[in-house]
Design a protein that fits this description.
heterodimer; A: alpha+beta; FAD/NAD(P)-binding domain; Flavocytochrome C3, Chain A, domain 1; Methane Monooxygenase Hydroxylase, Chain G, domain 1; five-stranded parallel beta sheet; 19 strands; 14% strand; B: alpha+beta; Ubiquitin-like (UB roll); Fumarate Reductase Iron-sulfur Protein, Chain B, domain 2; 2 domains; two-stranded antiparallel sheet; 13% strand
């Protein structure tokens, strides 16, 4: 076990002044020196593209890598609902402090105060920046920006572009990046996957990549390395992540000494389209924004639920008094807009009690009938149609309003399920969506490996044990546009005398050789089972033992199962094709191999954390009415996991200090 | 349901391609790509090379999928990417022909995968607003008419899949380029460098080897995001304008 001391490096001073004072006093790199410094950025999602573009604008030589054919395909593109910012344009009492507080509370007091406050501060600049780039946010008739609400908050601070906010923000960042590529300040390497991190004298100095078209391994050297490689939700096989989303860049960093923090903190999103069969390859999210207008319910009577499951009845056949709007009943203050972890667990409880509404028993209703009627009546009134409007007309008008707000989501639902959600309530169920855990970073977003930085979902820093809706986009862009361009200078200002890093030093050659051996080893197994089949099995173990509810017995069992699966993988996996060609099966194999190690660390983390907080629910630690019971005395720390050279998994701790908020039991009742 | 698939196989850019026929058993709830997953699993079990196709988000937004199904880019359903196409729209016993997007500017890499980096080059030639991080005024300082913002949004929903190019008999990228020009040019923020943008992007499009537009409107018909050919008309106007009045 290495002797690692985790220093958060949070600057001194009052919370609200830390970032401003720090920015004003940190070390700078002069323009003539920036020209001589190389920076590697891995990943081109919101965090990576915004960081690469901004670092290029500042004058650094940026080398940016993506395994996609184009930076625009990064999975940030799929984020639907919106992005939070403390603009207080709605005059509803929002402020930087309130956004900070909501995020800390929403994260169940397991994130770092100073990082979260900085995030809230940066949020307002993000909106300005994106508007200037041409992001077509939703607007009111007066031409000003519109807002909506998301779960876990009581103000309206979410900016959005229909149900495609992630797409529009990513295209903004992609365009800013493309502009820098055109100037030559940023060099773009598409279809290049990072397969290892290279350290020289203890500092991160480069990466080994595989060209996914030719299979060629290449060595890239730089003064520092920035990872913006997203989350690891695909360890569950079924998730709302894209098929290619993976942990490998981060995991390779872990295998080179970086620490994985709070890996068991997984967000299970309450509103996804339920699983329909064994062949299923991914799950599709229905944006949380739908809970602004949709009401979640299940039948009160088990026989009604059974009738629906068997196709003898439809949701609309159930009388109002026989429906259990369980979120409104259990959490009257927040109702359908409780945070994601709370909503997901409540759906699980409803289904566990036998009231699920899909053939698998695993679905609840999300119903828009009341919203359609409410909007229809308001429209009829504003059109001056008087009191004698037919119900059909009200429905028609109401459906139009709902279509304007959520049209693309309703369309997507219908395409996938073949059912019309305007006429029948949607069926939804929780699915893995986001991972709050990630590489451990300090206030500068630097990992414990000097010169290695992690941004966006790839780090752990801002969301604690649960992320609030519309905060992932905010964090990705805050890190990339407004944090790393400053904090990277703290490291690079000490490197201005370092000459260009050579990519043929013994460290680079050894790293390349190790990658080559790893690929050869995988290809030479020549077993009988596909990579996909191992991934599916791993996903089932993760969901069963490390999903919405966990317990010590299951986790211990899960750890053993994963260890056995990993052994079986290295004995019996079959990868067709060769290493020196375009070979998607080999790409999958290296990713699944890393997931097979990460999965075990996640379970160990879940086992170690003997409390329930946010997305981590341990069945042994709950209140009498089934709510999560946190243990602040023993677990107010970041659990940062090391995978050492002898393959031991060791725990390191960073104690969290709360000087500005009082740790309370999270209540949305 | 039992299906017969005629799939284009091609080892790499240099080699010659050919159609190979496969049999696969699917269910109507599967997506088209999940049906191909089943085929690939079958091929792997037989120790054969699976079919390479591009895909990622599988929710119709990343723009990675790029196949022509029975002669139509993204298959028979309007406004639907291949990943969102479900097997309930096919019949038991049907033969389905699957080819890559074909266009001069999209060379085939392997099987159904093509190189679309020419689209990135078009964006790099001017598909952006020149604003550095930190330079922006307050987001509400310039009001934008709701409908205008909506129009810009409609153009901005392009996912860069290239179906428009694959559908066009001339392999033209006019719909893609015009959507970007419209998205940015309609907004006050993008107006400043509009003329320069139009000229540069059109020139880059030609350099990449895309064909000319002859108004067949096949692009609009096959666009999974229903981008309108109105954008092409706007680009033509803008281009003339920038040529006649530009520097």
């Amino acid at each position: 076990m290495s002797n690692i001391k985790l220093e958060s490096n949070v600057p001194e001073g009052p919370l609200a002044e830390k970032w401003t004072k720090y920015r004003g006093s940190m070390n700078l790199v002069a323009p003539n020196n920036k020209r001589r410094i190389d920076v590697i950025v891995v990943g081109t999602g919101l965090a990576g593209a915004s960081a690469a573009a901004t670092l290029g604008e500042l004058g650094y030589n940026v080398h940016v890598f993506t395994f996609h054919d184009s930076p625009r395909r990064a999975h940030s593109i799929a984020a639907q609902g919106g992005i939070n910012a403390a603009k207080n344009y709605q005059n509803d009492g929002d402020s930087v402090y309130r956004l900070f507080y909501d995020t800390i509370k929403g994260g169940d007091y397991r994130s770092r105060e100073a990082n979260v406050h900085r995030l809230a501060e940066a949020s307002t600049d993000i909106i300005d920046q994106c508007v200037a780039q041409g992001v077509p946010f939703a607007r009111e008739y007066g031409g000003l920006l519109a807002n909506r609400s998301f779960g876990g908050v009581q103000v309206s601070r979410t900016f959005y572009a229909r149900g495609q906010t992630g797409q529009q923000l990513l295209i903004g960042a992609y365009q800013a990046l493309s502009r820098q590529v055109a100037t030559g300040k940023v060099k773009l390497y598409n279809r290049h996957e990072m397969l290892d991190l290279v350290k020289v004298d203890g500092k991160a100095r480069g990466i080994i990549t595989r060209n996914l078209l030719t299979g060629k391994l290449e060595r890239f050297a730089a003064h520092c390395v920035v990872l913006a490689t997203g989350g690891y939700g695909n360890v569950f096989y079924l998730s709302t992540n894209a098929m290619g989303s993976n942990v490998s860049a981060g995991w390779r960093a872990v295998r080179k000494g970086a620490l994985m923090a709070n890996p068991c903190f997984t967000q299970i999103h309450p509103t996804c389209i339920p699983v329909s069969g064994e062949y299923q390859s991914k799950l599709t999210l229905m944006s949380e924004s739908l809970r602004n207008d949709g009401r979640v319910w299940v039948p009160k009577k088990a026989e009604d639920a059974a009738a629906i499951r068997e196709g003898r009845m439809k949701g609309n056949d159930i009388a109002e008094e026989d429906r259990d709007y369980y979120l409104e009943r259990r959490y009257p203050a927040f109702g359908n807009l409780v945070p994601r972890d709370v909503a997901s667990r409540a759906a699980k409880t409803a289904c566990d009690e036998g009231n699920g509404v899909a053939p698998t028993g695993l679905a609840v209703f999300l119903d828009f009938a009341a919203a359609i009627e409410r909007y229809g009546k308001a429209e009829a009134y504003s059109l001056g149609l008087g009191d004698n409007v037919s119900d059909a007309k009200i429905r028609e008008l109401g459906e139009k309003v709902v279509e304007q707000k959520y049209g693309n989501l309703f369309e997507m639902y219908e395409k996938i399920t073949g059912e019309n959600p305007y006429k029948n309530p949607m069926k939804i169920f929780p699915a893995v969506h986001y991972t709050m855990g990630g590489l451990w970073v300090d206030y500068n977003l630097e990992t414990n490996v000097s010169g290695l930085f992690a941004l966006g979902e790839a780090n752990f820093s801002d969301h604690g044990a649960n992320r609030l809706g519309a905060s992932a986009l905010m964090q990705g862009l805050a890190d990339g546009y407004f944090v790393i361009p400053y904090t990277i200078g703290q490291f690079l200002s000490k490197e201005i005398r370092t000459p260009k890093i050579k990519n043929d030093s013994p460290e680079f050659m050894a790293a390349e050789k190790a990658v080559q051996e790893r690929l050869d080893k995988l290809l030479n197994i020549k077993g009988n089972q596909s990579v996909e089949s191992f991934h599916r099995r791993l996903g089932k173990y993760m969901w069963e033992y490390c999903g919405m509810a966990r317990n010590a017995e299951g986790l211990n069992k899960g750890i053993k199962l994963i260890q056995a699966l990993r052994e079986e993988f290295y004995k019996d996996v079959f990868i067709p094709g060769a290493a020196d060609e375009y070979n998607p099966e080999l790409e999958k194999a290296t990713r699944v191999a890393d997931f097979l190690e990460l999965g075990e660390v996640m379970m160990r983390d879940a086992l170690n954390r003997e409390e329930s907080c946010g997305g981590h629910f341990r069945e042994e630690y709950k209140t009498e009415d089934g709510e999560a019971r946190r243990n602040d005395e023993d677990f107010t720390y970041v659990a940062a996991w090391e995978w050492d050279e002898e393959n031991n998994i060791n725990l390191h701790k960073e104690q969290l200090e709360f000087n500005n908020v009082e740790l309370k039991t999270r209540s949305y009742k | 349901m039992n299906l017969q698939l005629k799939i284009w196989r091609q080892k790499n850019a240099e080699s010659k391609g050919y159609f190979e026929t496969y049999k696969v058993e699917a269910t109507e709830h599967m997506s088209f790509l999940e049906m191909l997953d089943v085929l690939n699993e079958q091929l792997i079990q037989e120790k054969k090379e699976p079919v390479v196709f591009e895909h990622d988000c599988r929710e119709g937004i990343c723009g990675a999928c790029s196949m022509v199904i029975n002669g139509q880019p993204h298959g028979p359903m309007a406004a639907t990417t291949t990943c969102q196409l479900h097997m309930r729209h096919f019949k038991n016993g049907q033969t389905i022909t699957i080819e890559p997007f074909r266009a001069k500017a999209f060379p085939i890499l392997k099987d159904l995968s093509v190189d679309r980096s020419s689209f990135d080059s078009i964006i790099q030639s001017g598909g952006y607003i020149s604003v550095n991080t930190g330079q922006a005024p307050d987001g509400n300082s310039i009001p934008i008419e709701k409908d205008l913002a909506g129009k810009a949004f409609d153009a901005a929903t392009c996912i860069g899949c290239g179906a428009c190019v694959a559908a066009c008999p001339n392999g033209s990228a006019m719909l893609f380029t015009s959507a970007k020009v419209s998205h940015l040019g309609l907004l006050p923020q993008g107006e400043v460098e509009h003329k320069r943008r139009v000229k540069n992007m059109v020139e880059q499009m030609d350099k990449e080897g895309f064909g000319m537009c002859s108004n067949t409107k096949a692009c609009e018909a096959e666009c999974p995001k229903e981008i309108s050919v109105e954008n092409i008309a706007r680009l033509n106007r803008n281009y003339m304008n920038s040529i006649l009045t530009g520097e």
